[in-house]
Design brief:
heterodimer, A: 300 residues, mainly alpha, MetI-like fold, 12 helices, 77% helix, flat, B: 269 residues, alpha/beta, Rossmann fold, 2 domains, 6-stranded mixed beta sheet, 4-stranded antiparallel beta sheet, 10 strands, binds adenosine-5'-triphosphate, binds magnesium ion
């Protein structure tokens, strides 16, 4: 039996095997199994961007050909000029470089609001998720607060806190914190009870278990939470700035809307998108740095 | 090290009764092997001994007083699943034991104590054959390696009572025998009382000084969960004279195992 198998293998070597290998049938794989090469992925990913750009360029050129003063779809050159103007020429009245002043004001609000929400989410989320008494006390409340539309609170915030920074930062924090609190609490409640029991058999108490078990295991989720919260945070920021502000990216867009200045609005939207993408990328990097265990197969 | 007395223990989940009238006394240093059909409540019994779950009736005394209803360093456990901390490397997993035990409010020991702890941890890693994996996260260890790490971790805690829930289920036969030897060695060294749940009858007879079978004695065909399991068989073994093949066969029949030959072979190994 064994001997025959070996003999067959020996006669089947060389050219025979090579020809067999060469004729591996090229079947069509199922859609879910057909992977994309790295270069192919880059190409495919770039396609939608190229398509949108092409449609825009064509429409813009067409409209400008009909009416050179058309403001609706400015050409790339017009937009670049307007953008450069805002970025490099000091404003006549205030002497500020408008783009950078707007960006700074908006980012400070955004990060203050999201930072506050993150801190609250971490403290409350862990307390609710880990300590049954706190859960009984606060979970129903947080669950209800979650469903209040934050924008409906905006007038109340402006009345109660004035039109200054506090109201805007509070809106962002209130807007994103409840969902983050619930998410973190859920994550903590999902910790395998086996691990919590084991930590106690080593002599862990509630506090040291928070430090050594809950906190590190919640970190990746917290960062994911922040990444997801940044979308709504931008929404609340722009809404608040549109209504009551004297600077900021959202304020600028709504200000120049009156003059139909698409050549400013469009670059600002692209700029906001770039800022959002960069923040998201940095947070993804941070997660890998802080919790390498949660990202197996990435680096090292 | 510690005597375990279980008296009239009962456990129900709602209407479903899992354990009833469980009575057993384990002398200090005994090694109890627990076998029984799947789903009969062996893990539940261990979780009650651990303090992770509370009984519906009866008492559990470990040492000289009833156990507090939460896990403590008196009892160590090796679970079948989720057995190590995924956010720590193999070495850090072992250091965590000392960190929790005497790390104070930071949950971390420093200086000379950390160096001692690290040395102890590295020796232990070597003993369970994981020295080469000291800086790997559990996600990149095989199931068997994770389980060895879990056993090492629990043993570092030096519990008076060691609870094992199918600790070797995920290991291949060669490693399993090595782990048997390691466990026996450490058991003799520390003299703790061990309660081990296993599906492997041979393992139960090989390691235990006593084999207990959990089974239901009463059945209600209309309502299968009306009655719980209890201890139906309790055999003290003499470590020096091997268990007789007849005993093994008898227990195997009770548990309904089909792999009698391998059970007898393991016992003899
Ligand atoms: N939290 C729970 N709620 C309700 N029923 C439960 C719970 N935990 C266990 N049970 C039930 O208790 C019974 C015993 O479960 P247990 O896990 O103790 O069995 P086991 O003997 O360890 O089984 P196995 O050998 O398969 O591990 C099962 O029927 C299970 O459905
Ligand atoms: Mg079980």
């Amino acid at each position: 039996m064994l001997a025959r198998g070996t003999g067959a293998a020996q006669t089947g070597t060389g050219a025979n095997l090579a020809s067999q290998l060469a004729s591996v049938p090229k079947t069509r794989l199922r859609l879910i199994n057909a992977t994309v090469s790295r270069g192919g992925a880059v190409l495919l990913g770039a396609l939608p961007f190229a398509a949108v750009a092409a449609v825009y360029l064509a429409s813009s050129a067409q409209r400008l050909a009909v009416n050179a003063n058309d403001k609706l779809l400015p050409s790339p050159a017009q937009m670049w000029a307007a953008f450069l103007d805002l970025a490099t020429v000091p404003d006549k009245r205030s002497g500020d470089l408008i783009l950078w002043a707007d960006t700074y004001a908006s980012l400070v609000r955004l990060f203050a609001g999201v930072g506050l929400a993150t801190l609250v989410a971490l403290l409350l989320g862990i307390a609710i998720g880990f300590i049954p008494r706190v859960r009984a006390f606060l979970l129903p409340f947080v669950t209800v607060v979650c469903v209040i539309p934050p924008l409906a609170l905006l007038p109340i915030l402006f009345i109660a806190l004035g039109l200054g920074e506090t109201a805007k930062i509070t809106l962002i924090a209130i807007g994103v914190a409840p969902v983050m609190v619930r998410d973190i609490a859920n994550r903590v409640m999902e910790l395998p009870p086996e691990l919590v029991a084991k930590a106690q058999t080593f002599g862990g108490n509630s506090w040291t278990m928070v430090l050594r078990l809950v906190l590190p295991q919640t970190m990746p989720r917290l960062i994911t939470c922040v990444r997801l919260a940044l979308g709504p945070a931008w929404l609340f920021l722009i809404a608040a700035e549109a209504i009551a502000s004297t600077e900021g990216l959202g304020y600028r867009i709504f200000l120049v809307r009156r003059y139909l200045s698409m050549d400013v609005i469009l670059p600002y939207v692209v700029w906001i998108t770039l800022l959002a993408v960069a923040t998201d990328w940095l947070l993804a990097r941070l997660s890998r740095l802080v919790s390498p265990w949660a990202h197996p197969g990435s680096g090292k | 090290m510690s005597r375990i007395v279980v008296h009239a223990l009962e456990k129900s989940y709602g209407d479903a009764r899992v354990l009833e009238r469980v009575n057993v006394t384990a002398e200090p240093g005994e090694f109890l092997s627990l076998v029984g059909a799947s789903g009969c409540g062996k893990s539940t019994f261990l979780r009650i001994l651990l303090g992770q779950e509370q009984q519906s009736g009866g008492v559990v005394i470990i040492g000289d007083r009833p156990i507090v209803p939460e896990p403590t360093p008196q009892r160590g456990i090796v679970f079948q699943r989720y057995s190590v901390f995924p956010h720590l490397t193999a070495l850090q997993n072992l250091l965590l034991v000392e960190d929790f035990r005497s790390g104070g409010p930071f949950g971390r020991v420093f200086g000379a104590r950390r160096r001692t702890a690290r040395q102890e941890a590295e020796t232990m890693l070597e003993r369970v054959g994981l020295a080469h994996a000291r800086d790997l996260y559990p996600a990149s260890l095989s199931g068997g390696m994770q389980q060895r790490l879990a056993i090492a971790q629990t043993l570092l805690g030096r519990p008076q009572v060691l609870l094992l829930d199918e600790p070797f289920g995920a290991l291949d036969p060669g490693i399993r025998v090595e782990m048997h030897e390691l466990l026996t060695e450490l058991w003799i060294e520390h003299g703790m009382t061990v309660v081990m749940v296993t599906h492997d009858i041979g393992e139960a007879f090989k390691l235990g000084t006593r084999v207990l079978v959990f089974d239901k004695v009463r059945h209600d065909p209309q309502f299968p969960s009306a009655y719980g399991a209890t201890i139906t068989y309790d055999l003290k073994l003499d470590r020096k004279s091997r268990a007789s093949a007849r005993d093994v066969a008898e227990v195997a029949a009770m548990v309904g195992t089909t792999r009698l030959d391998s059970a007898i072979a393991t016992t003899a190994s």
